């Protein structure tokens, strides 16, 4: 009897210890999680397949090769109503990229100026920047888009009363008409020299950095790089015979002929996303600069450096380590917020995809395209910013 009791108690202890073993419990909960995930995916897939069969809707992406049958007002590539749904989605994707890239550049510039302005010793400048940040951070981006579209751009005069700006530019409620560049023979040489100049500037920058690390002597990399970046393409342009003319817009009674027109939908979305995101970037810039120890500034002042030089050479390079990670999130937010352009009729990926969905009924396929595209853009942006963050990191000796 004693032996049986001993065996039973040891069995209970072994089963109890097995139940409370962290490794066993982790494996158990992972298996349960996988089973639940597979069950949910199967339920969704089965439900989608049942509904598609019930509505006699064919699944697959073959509809992308069918005729679209609708026009798009703003296109970067050739497109007509006879083009395919696939090409329509490509047009929307390119429009999304344009508004995202231009918005990111503008928001970064405005955000940097406002962020530094909030730290200014000038009371008026600091308060103006503070009001700007607080206003835009507490307004939904969709309202900012409507403000620019209906409250600013729609109030511009009609075509007949267009604002006649310098260089053959016209501004009215139909958009901004600008001269369209027309490239001639020899322009290929100019196009090739642009990446060559960029590579030369990068190589010069690396050489200047190595030279400074070895000898301590600085090199005017900014002026030299700017000279190469502008001078080399300009020289190639002149050697090629200046192969560039402009198709200048001409104002008529009811329309403007010639040139290129930037539609108000793009302007409203571009300005709204730029000013809205710049408010968040400004706070990121301000917090990054505040994160640099004051001793760095005091040391540079003791060495006789000017305030502007201290900010450019001492504070900002160190602040970038703090700024870049949250800055990535703001870039991703701006890119995803570009989908709000559908509210004012901007033909981005969501707008063209929505029209495609309504005409074909391929909801699952169109939504999956949206998800893949935005996910890809976000991953590429994150990878680039992570690489840039690694390049900006301080190297310890």
Largest sheet strand order: 1-2-3-8
Distance between the termini: 73 Å
Gross morphology is globular
Quaternary structure? single chain
**Sheet of most strands:** 4 strands, antiparallel
Radius of gyration: 29 Å
Overall average residue pLDDT: 85
Spell the H/E element sequence: HHHHHEEEEHHEEEEHHHHH
**Weakly predicted, low-confidence segments:** none
> Helicity, in percent?
55-70%
Q: Which structural class do you get from the secondary structure elements? A: alpha+beta
Quick one: how many beta strands?
8
DSSP helical segment count: 12
Beta-strand level of the residues, as a percent range? 5-15%
Describe this entry's structure for a reader.
The protein has 397 residues and is an alpha+beta fold. The protein is 68% helix and 7% strand. It has helices at 2-19, 22-54, 85-118, 123-137, 141-152, 187-215, 221-239, 264-290, 294-302, 307-337, 349-360, 363-392, and strands at 163-165, 169-172, 175-178, 180-183, 244-247, 250-251, 256-257, 260-262. Strand 2 and strand 3 (175-178) form a beta hairpin. Helix 3 crosses helix 8 (264-290) and helix 9 runs antiparallel to helix 10. The longest helix has 34 residues, at 85-118. It is globular and about 80 Å long. The N and C termini lie far apart (73 Å). The model has no long low-confidence stretch (mean pLDDT 85).
Write a brief caption for the model.
With 397 residues, the chain is an alpha+beta fold.
Topology:
Layout: H1 2-19, H2 22-54, H3 85-118, H4 123-137, H5 141-152, E1 163-165, E2 169-172, E3 175-178, E4 180-183, H6 187-215, H7 221-239, E5 244-247, E6 250-251, E7 256-257, E8 260-262, H8 264-290, H9 294-302, H10 307-337, H11 349-360, H12 363-392
Antiparallel strand pairs: 1-2, 2-3, 3-8, 4-5, 6-7
Helix pairs in contact: 3-4, 3-8, 3-11, 4-8, 5-8, 6-7, 8-10, 9-10, 10-12, 11-12
């Amino acid at each position: 009897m004693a032996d049986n009791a001993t065996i039973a108690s040891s069995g209970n202890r072994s089963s109890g210890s097995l139940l409370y073993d962290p490794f066993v419990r982790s494996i158990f909960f992972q298996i349960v999680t996988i089973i639940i995930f597979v069950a949910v995916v199967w339920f969704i897939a089965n439900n989608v397949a049942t509904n598609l069969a019930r509505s006699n809707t064919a699944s697959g992406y073959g509809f992308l090769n069918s005729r679209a049958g609708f026009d798009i007002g703003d296109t970067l590539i050739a497109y007509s109503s006879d083009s395919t749904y696939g090409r329509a989605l490509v047009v929307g994707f390119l429009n999304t990229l344009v508004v995202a890239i231009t918005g990111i550049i503008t928001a970064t510039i405005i955000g940097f100026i406002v962020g530094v302005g909030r730290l200014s010793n000038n009371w008026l400048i600091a308060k103006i920047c503070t009001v700007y940040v607080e206003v835009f951070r507490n307004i939904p981006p969709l309202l900012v888009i409507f403000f620019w579209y209906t409250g600013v751009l729609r109030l511009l005069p009609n075509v007949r009363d267009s604002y006649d700006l310098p260089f053959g530019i016209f501004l009215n409620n139909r958009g901004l008409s600008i001269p369209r560049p027309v490239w001639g023979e020899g322009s290929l040489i100019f196009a090739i020299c642009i990446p060559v100049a960029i590579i030369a500037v990068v190589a010069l920058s690396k050489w200047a950095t190595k030279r400074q690390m070895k000898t301590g002597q600085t090199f005017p990399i900014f002026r030299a790089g700017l000279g190469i970046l502008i001078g080399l393409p300009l020289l190639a342009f002149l050697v090629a015979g200046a192969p560039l003319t402009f198709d200048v817009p001409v104002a008529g009674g009811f329309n403007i002929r010639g040139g290129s027109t930037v539609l108000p939908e793009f302007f409203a979305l571009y300005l709204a996303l730029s000013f809205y995101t710049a408010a968040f970037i400004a706070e990121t810039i301000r917090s990054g600069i505040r994160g640099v120890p004051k001793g760095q500034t005091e040391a540079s002042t003791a060495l006789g450096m000017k305030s502007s030089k201290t900010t450019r050479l001492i504070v900002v390079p160190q602040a970038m380590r703090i700024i870049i990670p949250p800055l990535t999130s703001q870039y991703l937010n701006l890119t995803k917020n570009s989908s709000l352009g559908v509210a004012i009729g901007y033909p981005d990926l969501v707008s063209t995809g929505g029209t495609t969905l309504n005409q074909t009924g391929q909801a699952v396929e169109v939504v999956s395209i949206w998800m893949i595209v935005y996910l890809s853009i976000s991953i590429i942006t994150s990878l680039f910013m992570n690489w840039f963050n690694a390049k900006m990191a301080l190297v310890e000796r």
